Amino acid sequence: MWLNLSKFAWTVVVIVAIVCAHCSGFDQPKTSSPTLQPSSCSFVSDTDYATSRGSSRSNVASKEDCCQLCESAAASNATDCVVSVFDPSDNTCYLKGGFVSSHAKPGVIACTPQLGEYNCSAAVSAGGANCAAQLAATHWNPCYFINNQVPSLIDGAIQVAGMGSRTIKIAAFEPRSNYPFNSPQWPADDNTSAFTTLLSIVQHEYYTHLFNMDSLDTFILVAYSTVGARRGE
Fold first, then answer.
1. CATH 3.40.50.300 is held by the domain 31-113
2. What is the pTM of this model?
3. Domain range summary for the chain, segments of one domain joined by +
């Protein structure tokens, strides 16, 4: 049965053989706000952080202000700042996010904001977040199953929806290998002749069942140009 994508109101994002390259550059310096509220931070002298992404702010008066900049940026979703580094020699604050790792650097001060645990339920109640749409989980090559009465692909999707998310990331290649449990309807050979196009994979009854689940509406599909084959083949 052909899958008519126009019938459904969900969103599909396809990722095709993307390789992420982390950059070490910083955005152009920006002038910081002159008025900052006190923050709860921890400070470590002579410590810097390497990062995969970040930005800098000039004319920052103190390490406390630098830490508050990081805290404010993270709270406002402007950047995923997890630590800032203050250089008192030129009053520059470096906001650092992504993958960070510490190393010694004389003269600078690492500033870590104490952000605490994010309360998604409270944010939803206050009208400031839609966690069900923003938080997602990956269901890919599971090591076990919860319900032996449903196919592996659907079993994991039910668990993701049960956590309150309406977004799921799944594999759209090698389905027999990636979702092996309780799934007798997968073709015996999913690497060559069974699936010749990406559409032929997502038209399989297990995927169409997934796409018709009322509890999910956004699907991130990881696919490769080799369609059903293994990565790199």
1. no
2. 0.51
3. 31-113, 120-223
